[in-house]
């Protein structure tokens, strides 16, 4: 399988001090990138062999990702990549709105460190020019991680890393990523410009509207594609 060959390439990342946390990092990234789509059963033997880790280490990494809501254990069937419900998507956006808007509200006086945000905007536009919509999605996720990083809080960064990784499970089910992501390229740029001008209150208002629109669009698209047995 291509997915397992890609995991074998990641084996070098583990080094000599392989830990469940590092395995979880690799699997989290692979899930976020769509190598293991929602509903996929994860084979302990195949993945453990590809990464060269013990069954106990792999099970611990599965436990960590289950705690993050990326995986689920189905009795007598094994471990699967989660298929989110519509309620899950709604809850993710409630969390995003609370956290991201609070970050903007608490920024203090300008200027702000916006290089990371501007870089994510540029990455998104380059990917759109190439019509690489999966990469546009990735750039958009990076944009929101950089936005939250403005708070300079490791705990907030960790929370949003988990929330945004879970959100991507929904993205992988939707069949029109261009329609889903392209409208937000201009809105990301607008947010950067508002922050560059020190217009924090306006940026917070725009961000709230942005997240509400994104939630409504994703829920509508997701309802149409959600597996009946999900």
Descriptive report:
The longest helix is centred in the last third of the chain and has 26 residues, at 200-225. Helix 10 runs antiparallel to helix 11. The chain has helices at residues 2-10, 20-32, 44-51, 55-67, 86-105, 115-129, 133-149, 154-171, 177-181, 183-196, 200-225; strands at 41-42, 71-74, 78-81. It has a three-stranded antiparallel β-sheet. The model has no long low-confidence stretch (mean pLDDT 90). A hairpin with a 3-residue loop joins strand 2 (71-74) and strand 3. The chain is mostly helical. The two termini are 24 Å apart.
Short description:
This protein is mainly alpha-helical. The chain is built from eleven helices and three strands.
Salient structural properties:
230 residues, mainly alpha, three-stranded antiparallel β-sheet, 11 helices, 69% helix, globular
